[in-house]
Amino acid sequence: MSGPEIFVIIIVALLLFGAEKLPDIAKTIGKGMRDFRKATDEIRREIETSTSDFRKDLTDVTDTIKKDVTTYSEKIKSDMTDVSESIKNDMNNVTSEARQSMNEMSTSIHNDMNDIRENIQKNAEASKDNISKEPDVSKDNVVKETEVQKDDIGKETKDVSEGFYKEVKD
Questions:
Q1: Are 145 and 127 in contact (CB under 8 A)?
Q2: C-alpha 125, offset from chain centre
């Protein structure tokens, strides 16, 4: 309310109640306002007191939830690290086993190639011996026989290589 409105209310009260009762009325109104403020303050204090317990409980629950979430997230991280390390170890084991198998196959292929080379040399020496023993064997027959032996060796080498690659793929 503004100043002129209050002034009008005071004049109306003065006319209605008279000058003698006006101080008593003001005293009663002042006392009522004081009691109203006091009651309002008490209600406010009561609300703050009752809600402070609720706020404390809410804060406790929030802190507990934060702790639990932190604990579970750390546990999950730890489990993920363990699983990751386990997978890495398993992959290293599988890789080393595959390398070992490839080395064994490579050694086996080398040995087979050496055996084939030795067989070729033996066959070549045997062919020379046969040529020198049989005068009617012509040079063309020797060339054909050598080409057949080369083809046989090529097929054996190809079969060994394909077997190696098939085992490596498996």
A1: yes
A2: 66
pLDDT digits (tens, 9 = 90+) for 104-120: 888 988 888 888 888 88
What does the block give as tokens for 38? 């006091």
- Whole-angstrom CA distances from 170 to 52, 98, 166 are 71, 10, 6
Q: How many CB atoms lie within 10 A of CB 127?
A: 16
Those residues with Cβ within 8 angstroms of residue 164's Cβ, 6 or more apart along the chain or in another chain: 105, 106, 108, 109
Contacts of 153 (CB under 8 A, 6+ apart): 116, 120
SS3 at position 4: helix
Q: What are phi and psi of 20, to 5 degrees?
A: -75, -35
What tokens were used for 96?
Answer: 């080393």
Residue pointed to by tokens 């993920």: 80
Measured between alpha carbons, how far is residue 149 from residues 105, 122, 152 in Å?
Answer: 25, 11, 5
Dihedral (C-alpha) 129, 135, 140, 143: value to the nearest 10 degrees?
A: 0
Residues in the chain: 170
Global pTM? 0.38
**Tens digits of residue pLDDT in 4-31:** 887 788 788 777 877 788 788 878 888 9
Cα gap 30→33, rounded to integer Å: 5
